[in-house]
Amino acid sequence: MSAPNQATAISQRSLSWRQFKAILRKDIVMELRTKEMITTMSIYSLLTMVIYQVALSQAGTGFDPRNIAAGLLWLAFVFTSMLGLNRSLVHEKDQGCLEALLLSPIDRPVIFFAKMVGNLIFLLIVQVLTIPVFGFLFLQQGSYAGELWMIPLVLLGGSLGIAGVGTLLATMSVNTKGKDFVLAVLFVPLMYPLLMACVSATTVAVLGGVDSEQQFWSAMGMIAIYDVVMIAAAYALYEFVIGA
Questions:
Q1: What is the phi-psi region of residue 208: left when phi exceeds 0, alpha when psi lies from -120 to 50, beta otherwise?
Q2: I want to staple 45 with a disulfide (CB 3.0 to 4.6 A). Which of 80, 156, 166, 210 is the partner?
Q3: Domain boundaries in the chain?
Q4: How confident is the model over 43-60, as pLDDT tens digits?
């Protein structure tokens, strides 16, 4: 690569990085001012945990809630994330920010990654607030048999997939009449493979057992493959989706 071309490429990467930071900063500052998205998602997630616990309290003394706790946790995260994903794009459209972004000289993939990282940050915050309540309600003292370090890895891997795919689907559904319905119809089926892998890894993290690390890394491998493939697909499709 010649020196002028190399300088142009470096300049373009620097510009894209500044644009990425500007969009991400705008989303974070807006959320810090209103706290609407995080508050809504957190309350919904916590109430879901309480409802699960009340429903399972009638299951009898022989029932061990740890066997299904991981599934309940990730169901709560998937449905909670749909609230945040919808709001993140609806606010942009209602306030005219989305049209301004499309009219500005910003590469569409930059918009995608900025939105994805913003959604990832908000989802991780909600998860950090939910996990202690989850542990208190479903993992009684002395009943945690797994490895604590496994939990953050599962949360990060699962949240990456949710944020990547969800950002694409929320952009697709924002211009439709039934935004919530359309997003749910598209989002839930695509989340099924990721949800299965996250539940498997979280169950191993909670219950432990023989060959727990092998089972955990096997599930994490599935999560990693899903994240790479689906985020790459979302990256490739985003320019066509947001311009439609």
A1: left
A2: 80
A3: 13-242
A4: 999 999 888 888 887 766
